[in-house]
Amino acid sequence: MPFRPxxxxxxxxxxxxxxxxxxxxxxxxxxxxxxxxxxxYVAVEYPQFVQAGKVLDQSExxxxxxxxxxxxxxxxxxxESPKHEAQTNxxxxxxxxxxxxxxxxxVVAAAHELQGDLIAAFGIPVAPKQAPDLRDAAALYAARxxxxxxxxxxxxxPQASALNPPPTNFQDVKRQSARSAxxxxxxxxxxxxxxxxxxxxxxxxxxxxxxxxxxxxxxxxDAQRERGAQAWQRGEGRKLFSGLPALVTMTPAEAxxxxxxxxxxxxYLRHEPAQVEASARSPIAFSIATLGRSLTAYRAGDADExxxxxxxxxxxxxxxxxxxxxxxxxxxxxxxxxxxxxxRNAIKxxxxxxxxxxxxxxTLALLAQAEEQLTxxxxxxxxxxxxxxxxxxxxxxxxxxxLAAMAAFLVRTDRRESLPWLHAGWMAALLLGAxxxxxxxxLIAISGAHREVTEGVTALVSAGLLLYxxxxxxxxxxxxxxxxxxxxxxxxxxxxGALFSIALVSFLAVYREVFETVLFYQALWVQSExxxxxxxxxGFGLGVGALVVLAWLIARFSVRLPxxxxxxxxxxxxxxxxxxxxxxxxxxxxxxxxxxxxxxDFPSIPLLGIYPNLQGLALQLVLVTIIIVGFAYxxxxxxx
Length: 640
Fold this sequence. Notes:
Elements: H1 6-13, H2 28-49, E1 50-51, E2 54-55, H3 58-76, H4 84-99, H5 104-122, H6 137-144, H7 146-149, H8 173-176, H9 181-190, H10 205-215, H11 222-233, H12 244-249, H13 252-258, H14 262-271, H15 274-280, H16 283-299, H17 303-315, H18 322-348, H19 353-374, H20 381-412, H21 419-443, H22 448-475, H23 479-489, H24 496-526, H25 531-559, H26 563-591, H27 614-639
C-alpha cells in the first residue's frame, strides 16, 4: 500500500493544525489550504493508477474521482475574485479529465496550474521568509527522521519493519519527481493521519523547511548538482528561479519538462537555496553567502571546493562592485580585495581551520562595511558621471598609447596603405566588445573565471607582442640602420604576415580593455537609475571624446619628432606597456584561481600593472631587466 493512501486526504479534510502556516483555522484560508493539499495528492497519485487510459487500481481511481469532485465544490465556494470563474472552470476541467481517464501528465499539469493560480490569487504562503541554512540539516534528519526513513532516505530505518504502512522511500525517483519542497514541508508540518507519520509540531518553521530541503535531495546525484551549479553560474535559470516561491513549488518532473539543465539547476538550488536569494540581492550579498559555503566546505575537509567557492565569491560578487566602491571608499576596496586574497591563500596553503576562520571573519567584516557603503544613499549624478569618465579614461588610455604609436610608425615609414589593417583590428575589437555586452547582459552570464582567464591570457600575449615590437623599433633608432631598412623595403609592400600582426596587436590592445570595461559599466549601470544613468552616458561620451583628442595629439606631434628620437621613444613606450600588460595578466589569472598569489608589502598601482603579489612583481622585474639589457646591447651594437 502506498505511503499516501486515502488517509492522507482525509487527514487534510479533518481539523489539522493549519495555524502552523500562519493561516486561520476557519473560513476561506482553511479551504484554500485543503484545496492545495488535495491537488497535491491528485498530482502525485493519479499517474500511478491510471496509465494509457486504463485503470490499474479501481479503488484508488475512485478516490481520485471523489477528491476531484471535492476540489471542484470547494473552489466554487471560494470568495468572489476577478479569476474566480476561470478557477472554477479549471476545477471542472480537472474533474472531466480524471473521469475520462486522461493522460497522467495532463492531469498533473492541470492540478499544478490550478495550484499556482490559487496561490497567486489569494497569497497563500508557500515559501520560507529566507533561505534555510542547511549546514545542520543532516544532523536534524538523523535525529528525527532516520530511525524510520533510514540514514540514506531509502525507507529502511531501524523501526521501518514495525510500521504499517511502511515509511516513504525518498530515493523513489518516480514518486519524488512529483513532489515539490513545499509539498514535503506540508507533510512534515501536518503529518499523515492513519500512519505513524505524526506532525512535527515541536519543530520551528525554519527547522521544518530544513528537513524539507534535505529530504528533497535524495534522488539527485553529486554530478547532477555540479552540472546545475555550472549552469547557474552561466546565468541559466535566473529568471525561472527568481525567488524562493518559484524554487519550493517546482517539482523535478516540471523542471525536466522545461528542458536544458533546469532539472540539474533545481537539484543544485535545493542543495544551495541561499543562491536564489543571493542572485536577487547585491553582489556583496552573493560574496558573503558564497564565502559561507566556502568555509563550510573547508570545515568538511574539502579544500578544493572551498577554494573554488572563495574564487567565485570574489569574481562573481565583489569584483562587480569595485568601480562603484572606488568612488566612495578606495581604501576600503583595496583592504577588502586584499582580505579576500588572504582568505583564498590560507585555503590554498591548507592552513589550520582556526587561521582560515580568522581570515574569513576579517573578510566578512570588510564586506559588511562595503555593503553599507554601497547600500547607503544612492550616488549622485555627479558621482556617476565621474565614475563613468574615470573608467573609460583609465581603460582606454593604455590602448590609445599603443594604437597611436603604431599609427605614427606607419605614417613615418610611408606605409599608410597598412593603416586599414590597424583600424580593422581595433574596430573588430569594439564590435566584439559590443557583442560581449549583449551576450553577457541578455543571453548568458560570462563566468568570472572565464572572464579573468580571457583578460589574463590576452594581456600576456599582448605583452609578448609589444616587447617584440619595442625591440624591433629600438634596433631601427639609428638613422643609418633605418635608411638601410627603408631602401630594402622601398619597393615591396609589407608581407601579409606583417599586416596580420599589425591587426592582431591592434585587436588585442583594444579588446582586453573593452572586455574589462564592459564588466565595470554593467555594474555601474545597474546601480544607477534615472538621471544617474544619464550621467553615466554623459561621462562615457566625454571620456571617449577625450581619448580621441589624445590619440590625435600623440599621432600629430610624434610625427614631428626627429626620426631617431621617434623610434627610441616609441620603443620605450611599447616596452613599458609590455611590462604593464604582464602585471595585469598575472593579476587576472590569480583572480581566476589559475596562478598562486603570494602577497607582499608593496604599493598597488593598477594603472601601471603593479600589484602587491610576488609572482607579478617577479615577472615584471624580469621583463624590466631584459629590456634594460636588451636596449643596452642594441645601443652598444649600433656604436660598434
